Amino acid sequence: MREVVFWGFSGVALAAALLCVTRRSAVASALWLVLTLFSLAGLFVLLDAQFIAAIQVLVYAGAIMVLFLFVIMLLNLGRAGPSDMRGWLGRGVAALLGVGLAVELWVLVRIVRGGGFAAETAAYPLPPGELARVQQAEGAVGMLAEPLFRQYLVPFEITSVLLLAAIVGAVVLAKRKI
Amino acid sequence: MLLGPALGVSALLFAIGVGGVLLRRNAIVIFMCVELMLNAVNLTFVALAQQIGPQGQVIVFFVMAVAAAEAAVGLAIILAVYRHKESVNLQDVNLLRG
Amino acid sequence: MPPVIEWVWLVVALPLAGFAANGLLSLVQPSAKRAVSAIGVGTVAAAFVVTLAIVRGLAGAHASDPFVVTLWQWIPLGDLRVAVAFQVDQLSAVMLLVVTGVGLLIHVFSVGYMRADDGYARYFAYLNLFVFFMLVLVLGANFPILFVGWEGVGLCSYLLIGFWFDVKANADAGKKAFLMNRIGDAGFLIAMFFIFQATGSLAFDEVFARAPRVFAIGGPTITAIALFLFLGCTGKSAQIPLYTWLPDAMAGPTPVSALIHAATMVTAGVYLIARTNVLFAMAPIAGAVVATVGAVTALWAATIALKQWDIKKVLAYSTVSQLGYMFLGVGVGAIASGMFHLVTHAFFKALLFLGAGSVIHALHHAYHATHRHEDAQDMRNMGGLRRWMPWTASVMWLATLAIAGVPGFSGFFSKDEVLAMTFAKGHEHVLFYGLWAVGAVAALLTAFYMTRLMLYTFHGPNRTGAAEQGHVHEAPWVMTGPLVILAALSVVGGVLNLPEVLPQSGWLHHWLEPVTAAGDFFRPDTHLSHGTEWALLGLATVIAGLGIAAAWRFLTPADLKPAAEAPAETGLQKLLLRKWYVDEIYDTLIVRPLVWLSDVVLWRRVDAGAIDSVGVNGSARVARGLGVIGSWLQTGHVGTYVFFFVVGALLLLRAATRF
What we know:
The structure holds three protein chains of three kinds. Chain A is mainly α.
């Protein structure tokens, strides 16, 4: 059952990603990307990351993609204009490099699965199903809150500064007159 | 456990994102492809979190925060470029030519 | 150590303080000439008094080893330990007395001579600085400290030769002196490197103690060290081949010529050889070279002096010639004789220069009063001056008799002793008989040219000009006073070291024995029978008399014409007047090829042609070309950048996945 749902979400995510990349209209691309993000949220749930799945929907699909659509509309790029795809040579190069990258990453995955990097992975000998048990015990939020506010407190605070800087930067860049 | 398949899906998603960046000229679409790549990486972190514990998911949290910041600034830059060039086509933006 | 010797630093510090005070005055209050004179003369006088006390203490100590007063460590660097240390022994005592004593007299003379000069304070500042460095030179207890003094006096020489630097010739003369001294200094430095490498020390006491163990007598290392040291001496003491700067150095004020370029600085080379006499004693070949160069220089410079018209040039070449005698003395191993001649020469040559200064001073004022622009130093513009300057004329006659070697005067004993020691050395090698002959001929010429100088300056009719004669006056007492004292010393200076045949003989010789004994150990004993010594004394008397008589007989001051109307010289006379064309030969053989090499080859060809075009501009062109190629990659299109970025990432991944 898990496998079926997993492959279903995976298939939707991949197909939507391909469509996102190949649709001529920017709005269509954005909507296909939203679908990919939703599918990924489903995969996150399957991988014992309920909280991440939730904020994936809230922050990514909700906030960030709305921002994208807002900008597309602001610039009036909604209707399909002349294609922004590259010529046949460009498409060939893109496909070649994309496939090449996929193959290489696949090789990398096989190496990891085959026990490569054993020295590195051996440091984290979490038994199968352990994460799910932790999540059961502490709750989806509690499981993340513990390391986030202890081990990663300083990065967390720096992230808040980063967001503030991004807000100021965005305002400065987008405003016509300051 | 699904670790292997999840990593494979993540690799494919990432490759699609890269292909998209190479394929498109529209700055906003390219930006979306970058988001796609970030999400592929997120999937990798979440998948590996099953082996290394909740810390893997915490990283995803940070990636999202950075992605949000990047989207805000990046889109603001695209707006500024559009205001200047009346276009978001990267073919028209070549100020860095040597 | 007698407690008074601890105060030796005061001797050095006093002139330095004088320099500081006068240097300050020359900047803020140059017109305060009374204060400048008081400080300038006072500090040197005080240094002289302290010196007297120290020498008295030293004489009372009857020490066979030098007293070394270490002030502080200067360069403590691994095995190299150089201290600021002063060495008081019999040799430095002699030099101390000469430097502060003669220096004091010349300072006093300068008060009168430079009275009207605008740079009065600056002049005394330089002069005090010179005394300071000269004292550092003679007191230094190791080679580096001696070298500091050595370079310092060179600097002061440069500053004082070019004292009137608004005339280009003076500045050029200073530059020439400085550059020629550099050649010699390079030799000195190389010698120091060798010494440190061989003995592991630069302090005199250690070097001289270790030298007999580390050097083979007559070996190549010790010979090289001695010869390089002597190269330094030829520069500083104006010997062949580096002597040509000294006559040009007469561009400076005349008391400077007396102090620096006759009495003290130029004798530093003789002092250096006396100081390092152990090293020279162990290198007999180097000693022979020193003696040969000295003798040849003595003759060579004497021939040039025969025909010079500039009164100071005659004295300058005479100085070069007399320095040659000193080197002949120290070269044959007669350290005490060389030092003896150094001391007597300091007396009579300082006197001659100061007397000449007096004459120039008088003539300068006379021409100044009548607004004529004639050369106040040309002897053809003098003549008959004894009528107006009786004191100057008489003391200069005394000095002339001394330098010519008339029996009884100081120069007679010192010059005779140098020649006698050379003659005695003839037993070892016939070369020294030859050197003695050369020295004897030079002595004849010395008597001749000095008498010529006196005849043309003070005797015969006056050629200065009718209007000027009324303005020629004897110098004030502040100038004649030092002359009289120096004249007395020139006359009686010989008692310092009477020949063996006389009673009370060899006093300076015994005094210096603690210093020279170590070197004498390596030299064969030379001894002259009393008969030979009497014969040599007699011969010296004959030579002096012959020279003076010949000048008196053959030269006719009455036939001379003033410089402006004088006919051009011809033949040998012209050759001598133009100083054997040595300056021109140096110019042709060394200076011009060097300038040509620097200008045409090194600058235009190598620097501009090769380095600039190939190296500098070429590398710039290569960088530019590479930049052009690189800029093709910079299309400005993000797509291209992403393409290369992804290709790079793929390659890296490939490298990472290949285990």
